[in-house]
Every structure is written in C-alpha cells, then in structure tokens.
Amino acid sequence: MRLLWKSLDKMRCLRKRSTIPFLGFLITFLLFLNLYIEDGYVLEEDKRQLRETSVHPPSSERYVHTFRDLSNFSGTINVTYRYLAGTPLNRKKYLTIGLSSVKRKRGNYLLETIKSIFDQSSYEELKEIVVVVHLADFDLVWCENLVQEITRKFAHHIIAGRLLVIQAPEEYYPSLDGLKRNYNDPEDRVRFRSKQNVDYAFLLNFCTNLSHFYMMLEDDVRCSRNFLTALKKVITSREGSYWVMLEFSKLGYIGKLYHSKDLPRLAHFLLMFYQEMPCDWLLIHFRGLLAQKDVIRFKPSLFQHMGYYSSYKGAENKLKDDDFEEDSIDIPDNPPASLYTNINVFENYDAAKAYSTVDEYFWGKPPSTGDFFVIVFNKSTKISKIKIATGSDDRQNDILHHGALEVGEKLVGTKKGKQCSSYITLGEFKNGNIEVQDVDHKIAFEIECVRIVVTASQKEWLIIRSISLWTTQPPSQ
C-alpha cells in the first residue's frame, strides 16, 4: 500500500502534460475506490500508513491540510465554513440546490438565478427545498456587498431557512500555482478551472446532510415552472433502478442530480483531480467509476443557461439548451410496468427504452399484421391520457403506418409473458402518432395493460420513440 501511494505521489510531482498518465491514475483510483469504499474493509495498519504518508509536495502546507483525510472517502472534509447569511435547519429537506459564484468581469446573474428558483416554485414546493450559495471569491469586500443585496431581496427566504450563503476560507484551498497545463490551456485558464473544481468540492461537502437529493446549478440559470414536481416524478419513476447522476440539462454543470449520500465521495474526487480537467469532464469519470455507464438525461430540460458573459475573463458565452421549456412541464407519470413485444428487436434498442423519459427509443425490424407491443402494469391504475410517438427526426419513415391502441384488464400468464385477456380499442395511429385524452372517462375499469397492435404489415422498420402515460391517482393497492 505504501508503494501505491508513493507511485501516486510521483505521478503528481512529474506534472506531465500528457493525459495518458491520468488514465492510468483513474484505473488505480477505481481500484482504490472499490477497496476502501465498496468493500468497507481497510487493515488498521494500512489506515495508519495512509495517514502518515503525504500524497502532496511538502512545500504546500494548504495542500496537505486539504487532503490529509483521504483514507475516509465516505466522510466529509474538515472545513470550517463562514455563514454569511442564514443557518441550516434541523429537518432534512427533499432537495438541496447548490450554486457556486465568483466575481465576474462583466455581468452578474446570481440574483436572477436565485429569484428564478423561488419564483418558479409553488408554496408547497418551497417547503421541500433549500438553496445554498457558495461565494467562492477571495475578494471579501465583493462578498460582503453581494450578501447585503441577497439579504435585502430574499430576507424572508433566509428567515424561513430556504436560503443559505456560505464561504470556504481561502486557507483551506490547495495550491493554485504551478499547476499542470493539460490540453495546452494557458496558465490563467488552468488556475480558473482548477479553483472551480475546489469551489464545487467545498459546496458539495457542505450540502451532504441537508437533504435526500442534491441538484447542481450554475449561477446564471433560469428554471422551468414547478421544476421540483417534475424532478420528483422522474425520481419516483427510477425507483428500484441504480443511478448515480440524472441530468436535466445538456449543458455544463447545470441540472445534475445526485443522491446526497454520494456527495462526500464526489467532493473528494474533485479535490483529488482538481488540476486535471474541467469539472463537467470529471463528472463523467466519476459517474463511470460508480458503475453508471450511460448518460441518463431527461427531456424537456428543466434549466436554461441565461448568462451572456462567462465568469472566465468575461468572455461571451451564448450556449443555450434547445430542449428547455420554461412553462409548465407536463412530464408523464409512466407507472412501473413490464414491457413485452414479439417484434424483432434491433441490437440493444429494447422495449423498455420506449417507456423511459430518457432520450432513447425502441427500434424493431419490419412488423407484421398482428404483432404487438404491450405494457403490463405492476398494479392496475386509472389513466387520464396516453400519448405515443413513433419514428425519429433522422428516420421519419420508421413509423407505425397502420396500428391501433388498446387498453386491457383481467391479467393472465402466457408462454409469451403476461397479457390481459380482455381489450378495448381507444383509437388508430395517424402518421405514426396517437394521443387519447380523458381515458378514465371512456374506460370504466382500472387498466392493467396498454397494447399497441400492428394492423397491417410494413416493409419499414419501426421506431417507438416515446410512450407517455398520465395517471389520475396513484396505482391501487
């Protein structure tokens, strides 16, 4: 173990420009992560040696101070924060929203971002969130002036415990001089992105015990209306499935959702690799290390980048998320279900992908008359609306040319899986799509199955892009 840390120390000191050593370092870190976190087994002698072995150059005392407790990745980092406004409540909330902000050369959007979070939330939603702002600039005069503005505009949210403003003192930061210049970035750019990684790490560390879930936003973001309700629907739909990070925007470090229990490890991870690459790149590696291979991103996006000037040198930043919708997001409920089809599936475009709110789809080979695609609910439910879309932008002819939508009851087991023995037709597909409103007014029984039936063979392949269901009540017990 001593040899392992010596090799890590040597790799950091070499400060090579190439990214190849970093890949090897990541693999080593994965092994370390599995050993010390997942297995939860560390020999006492190894623990002692890890504490005694410095993984940083002795010339940087602050560096050592920050990293001296890396043997406990599941624990928080020992930082004494300054409370600039507000104090945490004793009760855990549902969601913490974290923002890190520094002084910009041109423009400041922080107050607009905070206002958007609160204005786009209902009174009931506000009871379940806490917003934490980390003022990560070392200019204390700027911080003091901004805190006064925040306090004046959002006093009632601070008093209610919904808004906290904090700062991690400069003495806790690792060295920001002489950093590795990966990707041929200029020194000031490396310093900026490296400090940003540490800013986020300290923010994540602070937020660990405030709520059950954590959402990272940037300080120049606009929110969709009732975004928390949409988030809760998505989280509920993922119950029973493993995930590390859910994404509600395709831009940067905006709209990334975590379990709060994972925040200490993510904070340590950002600190370990703070000088290697930008934070949004590190997130991809972190997600992979914790065995979430694929991106899980939801559409429409709930958050939009609104800043025109970047926090780095005030450069123009016109990035926009074209999947963002500001008005009420009508995200489907899609109650838990099993999916079956006798259509030949192409590669890994399986049936479940059509039922997910993630940007994926089912893709099958040409269907024949009588082929089916059926959704069997775990529990019978009342449905108010059904909307199904087939085909895609780049394969517009891979639609269901002739098909019917049915709902069923009286579930039975068959050789091909569970099916309902009785169905009622709700309508026919037109141009590959169908939408039926007021289903609960047209159907007297609680629905156990929803079925798509192919009514005429076709030569074209079939993409079922999305199946969206809205319920009128929770599934019956």
From TrEMBL:
Residues 61-324 form the MGAT4 conserved region domain. Residues 337-465 form the MGAT4 A/B/C C-terminal domain. InterPro entries: Glyco_transf_54, MGAT4, MGAT4_A/B/C_C. Pathway: Protein modification; protein glycosylation. One of its GO terms (biological process) is protein N-linked glycosylation. One of its GO terms (molecular function) is acetylglucosaminyltransferase activity. It holds the Pfam family MGAT4_cons. The keyword ATP-binding does not apply. It comes from the Eukaryota. The keyword Flavoprotein does not apply. Keywords: Glycosyltransferase, Membrane, Transferase, Transmembrane, Transmembrane helix. The chain crosses the membrane at residues 20-37. PANTHER family: ALPHA-1,3-MANNOSYL-GLYCOPROTEIN 4-BETA-N-ACETYLGLUCOSAMINYLTRANSFERASE C (PTHR12062:SF14), N-ACETYLGLUCOSAMINYLTRANSFERASE VI (PTHR12062). This is MGAT4 family member C. The lineage of its organism: Eukaryota, Metazoa, Chordata, Craniata, Vertebrata.
